[in-house]
């Protein structure tokens, strides 16, 4: 199969949305912007051996490659609309591409996202997705709007994906049922799209947790020129993690690392003024997604985490950094 046969077989499709004036098959896609709306545009790259292991399940990879991009759009409060998919592949492995596109298309259908272009080349396996979302002009949730006195919230639970990795690496153990649930959280993250959209006009700042709570909250406090105080006991996490936090010194260290610095959870971390607390509770019920207050924004810069006894944690684990 050559490049053009690959494109025709796996990627070519007629435009679905009337806004896509020119779709796949020309030199560029042409999209008509909706009046009064703005585009949020993001790109994320997944490199074999770096973000996923050699031999990783291609269907899950197709899901995850798209999910991480939709998560970035969610963190801006944008509704995902279009994606472009650039892939370097070591060869025209039809079974691999079929499975990858199976995972990709299933998630794209779920969120009504349309593939409008991309690039296909031979090379070390590398998947790069550009996602475009829409939002009413001026309504984007940025990292820069947090104010002292705001509450800090997080969706879902934190540390699951990192614990799955720690278990896979043989650093710690969990029972078989927890193991499966944690692995699912690592392999098939659900982008919090409905939450992001619903937080327009509510959240003062937002970010998705891709590099760990401490690091990602660090981006909000830096950009907002504020600080934050968190309560470890309030941070929502899986029962297996909670148990490890109460376990031996070594188990607690691993759990702290997962909860405070574990990446790949793709939950939304956001701030909001206390009077909006009831609206956030109602939103959690409507979305059937826990939204937990874990601390507050402070005027003093820096992040303070208090442990279960109210003592300040001496050192925060570092966020993931590719170049550190
Ligand atoms: P060009 O050389 O002009 O960039 P290509 O031959 O690379 O065009 O691509 C032909 C068409 O197929 C373009 O519309 C491009 O966006 C689309 N395309 C190529 N690879 C992919 C892909 N992996 N997913 C989606 N569309 C793709
Ligand atoms: Mg090209």
What does this structure look like?
With 324 residues, the chain is α+β, with helices and mostly antiparallel strands. The chain has two domains: 3-136, PurM-like, N-terminal domain (60s Ribosomal Protein L30, Chain: A); 151-306, Phosphoribosyl-aminoimidazole Synthetase, Chain A, domain 2 (Alpha-Beta Complex). It has ten helices and twelve strands. The chain has helices spanning 3-11, 58-75, 94-110, 160-168, 176-187, 193-198, 213-224, 239-245, 249-261, 277-287, and strands at 20-22, 30-31, 37-47, 79-89, 114-122, 126-136, 151-155, 205-208, 227-231, 268-272, 291-298, 302-306. The strands form three sheets. A six-stranded mixed β-sheet has the order 8-10-7-11-9-12, with helices on both faces. Helix 3 links the parallel strand 4 (79-89) and strand 5. Helix 4 crosses helix 5 and helix 8 (239-245) crosses helix 9. The mean pLDDT is 95. It binds adenosine-5'-diphosphate and magnesium ion. Residues 7, 11, 24-27, 85, 87, 115, 117-120 line the site of adenosine-5'-diphosphate. Adenosine-5'-diphosphate binds at residues 7, 11, 24-27, 85, 87, 115, 117-120.
Task: List the defining traits of the structure above.
single chain, 324 residues, alpha+beta, 60s Ribosomal Protein L30, Chain: A, Phosphoribosyl-aminoimidazole Synthetase, Chain A, domain 2, 2 domains, six-stranded mixed β-sheet, four-stranded mixed β-sheet, 10 helices, binds adenosine-5'-diphosphate, binds magnesium ion
Q: Nutshell version of this structure?
A:
With 324 residues, the chain is an alpha+beta fold. It contains ten helices and twelve strands. A six-stranded mixed beta sheet has the order 8-10-7-11-9-12, sandwiched between helices.
């Amino acid at each position: 199969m050559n490049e053009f046969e690959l494109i025709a077989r796996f990627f070519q499709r007629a435009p679905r949305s009337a806004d896509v004036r020119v779709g796949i098959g020309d030199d560029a896609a042409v999209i008509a912007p909706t009046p009064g709306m703005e585009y949020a545009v993001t790109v994320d790259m997944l490199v074999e051996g770096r973000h996923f292991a050699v031999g990783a399940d291609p269907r899950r990879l197709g899901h995850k490659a798209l999910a991480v991009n939709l998560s970035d759009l969610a963190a801006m409060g944008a509704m995902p609309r279009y994606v472009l998919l650039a892939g370097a592949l070591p060869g025209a492995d039809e079974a691999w591409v079929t499975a990858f596109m199976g995972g990709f298309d299933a998630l794209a259908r779920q969120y009504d996202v349309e593939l409008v272009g991309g690039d296909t080349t031979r090379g070390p396996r590398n998947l790069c997705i550009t996602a475009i979302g829409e939002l009413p002009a001026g309504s984007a949730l940025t990292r820069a709007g947090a104010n002292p006195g705001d509450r800090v919230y997080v969706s879902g639970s934190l540390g699951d994906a990192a614990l799955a990795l720690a278990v896979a690496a043989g650093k710690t153990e969990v029972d078989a049922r927890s193991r499966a649930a944690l692995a699912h959280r690592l392999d098939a993250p659900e982008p919090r799209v409905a939450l992001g959209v619903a937080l327009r006009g509510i959240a003062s700042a937002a970010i998705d947790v891709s590099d760990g709570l401490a690091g990602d909250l660090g981006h909000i406090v830096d950009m907002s020129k504020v600080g934050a105080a968190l309560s470890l006991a309030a941070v929502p996490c899986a029962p297996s993690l909670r148990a490890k936090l109460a376990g031996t010194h070594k188990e607690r260290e691993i759990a702290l690392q997962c909860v405070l610095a574990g990446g790949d959870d793709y939950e939304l971390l956001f701030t909001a003024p206390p009077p909006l607390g009831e609206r956030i509770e109602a939103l959690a019920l409507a979305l059937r997604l826990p939204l937990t207050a874990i601390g507050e924004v402070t005027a003093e810069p820096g992040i303070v985490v208090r442990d279960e006894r109210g003592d300040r944690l001496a050192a925060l684990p570092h966020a993931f950094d590719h170049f550190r």
